[in-house]
Every structure is written in C-alpha cells, then in structure tokens.
Design a protein that fits this description.
Structural class: mainly alpha
Radius of gyration: 19 Å
Strand content: under 5%
Number of domains: 1
CATH architecture: Orthogonal Bundle
CATH class: Mainly Alpha
Number of strands: 0
Helix content: 55-70%
CATH superfamily: Farnesyl Diphosphate Synthase
C-alpha cells in the first residue's frame, strides 16, 4: 500500500470516506492530495514535536511541492505530478500551509471575518484543489467549492469544541460572539453547559446552514455528476450538524460522529439525488 493511501486509510475521515464514489484514477489522485492535507495538519497539531521543528517541516513542503529533495516525504513526487497533471495553482497549496501555520500559535479569532479567513485557507482552498481533480466545466464551481469548504469547516469547529480546548486551549468560536451571548472564555474553559452555550452553538450552526444552502445554490447543473464526492462530503457533514442540533450540542459530554453504515447510506442518498437531478 502506498504511503498516501495508508495515511488516508488511517485517518478514517469523512472526507476520505466520500472518495469511494470516484473513478479509480481520480480516487488515487485525490488520495495523494488528501495525504498532503492530513500530514501538514497533523504536523501543526503535534505537541510532541518542538514548535521550531514543526515550522521547519512545513516550510520544507514549500520546496517539495516544486522540486525533489533527499529526505522528502515518500509521496511528494506523486503530488508534484498531480499539480502538473491538473495544472493546479501553487497559491492554493500556499493558502493551505498558511492555514495550518495559524494553528501553531494560540488560537483565538476576534470575529467571524478573521475566522472566515482561516476557514478559506484550511477548507475552501482544499475544495478548490479537489474540484480540479474531480473535473468541472462551469467556473461557478469554484464559488461552490469555497462555500462548501466553509460549511464543512464550521461543522468541524462545532463538533470539536471540546477536543480543541484540550489541544492547547484552542478556541475557534469568534470571541465577539461569545460576548454577544453572555458566554465567557472562562465558561468555555470550564466546560460550562447552559442556555447561553446552546444559543451560541445554535448561532454557529445556523451560519453553517447558510453556507450549505449557498453551496447548493451555486452548484452548476452540468457539474453535479463530477461533484458527487463533494456532495457526498457535504451530505455527511450536514447529517452530523443536524445530529448535534437535535441533541442540543452536548459537546462536552460525548463525541459526535456517523458510523460507517450511516455514512454509506448518506453517501448513497447523495449519489441518487445527484443522478435524479
């Protein structure tokens, strides 16, 4: 098994699960790209590695994306081939690296404008690379990918509130919105579950819903078939968002996820819906 495939399989990610709907070659190509995303994200998050070493390794990817070097990751040459094959803009990879580098510092976002910039880098840019691999005809697909990326990332942020707190006290909720709902940073650090917290999280969920709706509106009819994997991802994350909402965001008590059967059924529903359209 290739290194990229092993990294993707090990991640058990919702994104990786959606790749099963793709033709073999595109599935291999998106797996290589996903392995890059997974590896740089994990590197930024690893508390057992010194901060300077993490920065140095992420900086190395800026070179490995363009040229071969001794000691580079095993799938770097596959990724370079991928960039050339699909003529992918290097700036999108730069945005992804800038995004994961934002996680190296204590994470706080003053308002949604600042958070949106982060979401663009770590999610929308990923989507923009992905659609080059999926293939599309209408340039509006880029707008679709950007909105869907933000929707997915906002769902992740809601799901991982507790996990992120445990990982260096990270807070991805806009601080001005905590204040708006009368819920303090200290309350969050104390894992305080009350009506203020539920209202705050419902506000985040409604924003995610808005981005899901906008993505759906922007998906061109002629590209629905090629975007089936993206739509599958969206359907899985949307179902996860609904589950958290219906349970009133008991994020401090338990993790939220869909099991493999639920993911498969959701993915199948997305494929059928796309085919009918």
């Amino acid at each position: 098994m290739s290194e990229a495939k092993e990294i993707t399989k090990r991640s058990q990610s919702n994104l990786a699960f959606a790749f099963i709907s793709l033709p073999k070659q595109k599935r291999q190509d998106i797996t290589t790209f996903y392995a890059f995303c997974r590896q740089v994200d994990d590197a930024a998050d690893d508390p057992d590695v010194a901060l300077a070493e993490r920065r140095h390794w992420l900086q190395g990817w800026r070179r490995w994306l363009r040229q071969a070097e001794p000691g580079e990751p095993g799938f770097a040459s596959e990724l370079r081939h991928l960039i050339e094959k699909y003529r992918i803009d290097y700036q999108l990879f730069e945005e992804i690296l800038l995004g994961v580098e934002m996680d190296l510092e204590p994470v706080r976002f003053r308002d949604f404008e600042a958070l949106h910039r982060y979401c663009y880098r770590v999610a929308s840019a990923v989507g923009l690379v992905s659609i080059e691999i999926f293939g599309y005809r209408n340039p509006q697909c880029k707008e679709y990918a950007q909105r869907l990326g933000v929707a997915l990332q906002l769902t992740n942020i809601i799901r991982d509130v507790n996990k992120d707190l445990q990982n260096g006290g990270r807070i991805y909720l806009p601080l001005n919105e905590l204040a708006m709902f009368g819920y303090s940073e200290q309350a969050l650090r104390n894992l305080t579950y009350n009506d203020s917290f539920v209202r705050l999280m419902q506000f985040q969920a409604e924003r995610a819903h808005a981005f899901f709706r906008e993505a759906k509106r922007l998906l061109p009819d002629e590209d629905r078939r090629s975007m089936v994997a993206a739509e599958g991802m969206g359907a899985i994350y949307f179902a996860l968002l609904q589950r958290m909402e219906s349970d009133r965001f008991r994020l401090f008590e338990k993790p939220y996820r869909l099991n493999r059967i639920e993911k498969a059924m959701t993915m199948l529903g997305a494929i059928v819906a796309n085919s009918l359209r």
